[in-house]
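Colleagues,

Please find the record for the two-part complex below.
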Amino acid sequence: MLRNVFLKGLRDLRRSFLFWALGTAILPIWLGLMYPSVKKSAGVMQDYLDNMPEAFTNMFVGEGGDFTSPMGFIDAELFSFMGPIVLIVFGIALAVRQIAGEEERGTLGLLLSYPVSRGRLFFEKLGVTIAGVAGISVVTFAALVLGVRLGGADLGFGTMAAAMTSLFLLTLVVAAIAFAVGAATGSRGAAMGVATVAAAGSYLLNALAPLVESLEPLQKASLFYYYGGTQPLREGLQAGNVAVLLGVALIAVAVSYALFARRDVRG
Amino acid sequence: MADMAGVIETEGLSKRYAGDRGILGLDLDVERGEVFGFLGPNGAGKTTTIRLLLDLIRPTAGSARVLGLDSRRDSVAIRRRCGYLPGELSLYGRLTGEETLRYFAGLRGGVDWAVVRDFAERLDCDLTRRNADLSSGNKRKLGLLQAFMHRPELLILDEPTSGLDPLVQREFYGMVREAQAAGQSVFLSSHVLPEVQRICDRVAFIREARLVAVENVADLVGRAVREVEVVFAGAVSPEAFAALPGVTLAEENGAGLRLTVAGPMDALVKALAAHEVVSLTSREPDLEDVFMTFYGERSGDAA
């Protein structure tokens, strides 16, 4: 596990990944098990939601969401808010540890005194980030499938896979932004800051744009818009959205690589 | 032809930081098989130069060739053939010494592990402990080991003996001599003159980002500068000593004198013998005094 930068990166991730995986898996399983009782009290729940302000339901349930259908329930409870939060926090933490973290710890200089080109280092570290985000997505998906099976909610495998792919891509973009800023600046703080603003800003923009007229044209600048907003299960996976998310990630990585290859390295 | 070229050749190599710090217009020529000392006070530009040679930072002007290769374009090839010890060494805290070296060896495509074991024994390195639990001296030993373990053509060592205890320092000097005997070249920075005098063939003096002089160490020894402190039983006239060849009066307080002696001590010792001496101490002067004595008067035209 110590043969190259990529494998060492995975090795470093072992322990924290285990804890993250356990923590992340709890929510989808619990939601699956909860679903039968939510369905039973469907009327009460819907009344409750109907009395909420529109901004609130927009943010946490989705526009015109049917909270008591399997799709509406899992969209609202997992995909609209909690899922993205947990995965994005994981993705940012992992991404900023790669180049910026190694530089701040002071080990990057010694590492780059070895016959490892800047490019190879950059892409192996990016590979660790992608592998980590993919890993936590697979765990989340497995937990969701298990929870839905256990609770008996009527939700197709393909539908869940499509929504999960959207969540994976959303997390990947934010992680790629964090990685890119970290590699370009060598600062974990800057990387975390920019990625957090991109994620939180996207979320708020997408949720509030339909309600605030002046924001409406800006909705397409939100990453969450291409994720399926608050209802990726109902929206499904769309080629155009996938292309936008991957495109943003690619641009961030390409610009970052050009800057990292040229700049001075500390430590 | 490449084999005939120097191991390090720089032409006007510069890295300008704010306030004229860094290194400016460095022309240096280190020959193959040489142990070359890079001497200067902290902040003079030693580390900056080393980091330029390894392409960790990029010059603002000038260029460098290492092992006959361009330091920018052929950096990976250069780094394959060099071993480097950073001045400020950080290691992966969670790895043990052995895991650290396995990782680094892997990045070099494998290293003869018998050599690693041999160096570990000589430096008394415990490879089973986690780096986070090592003292700074033990970390430095691991740092030396990773620089030497693949028997590189060129060793670039930034303040290699700082933080080492005297016993390990001596072992390190032995390792440098053996490396030289095996045809390896060594470029090391230091801020202590005696150390450089002990192991280097030539030494470059740098101060305030500029190269002051390059000297053969053999020539330096004849011009060695020492500081002598004498305490007399009674009052003496300091002028008599200051008039001796090579002796300058640095300080006078009551019955004590502080003198700087350049070159042989003989005249001073014989003059002192005429008085009743209570105590006599001699020590190596600090680097600033050396600069003042060697280059103080011609600092204007030295560069």
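The mean pLDDT of chain A is 92.

Comments are welcome before we finalize the supplementary table.
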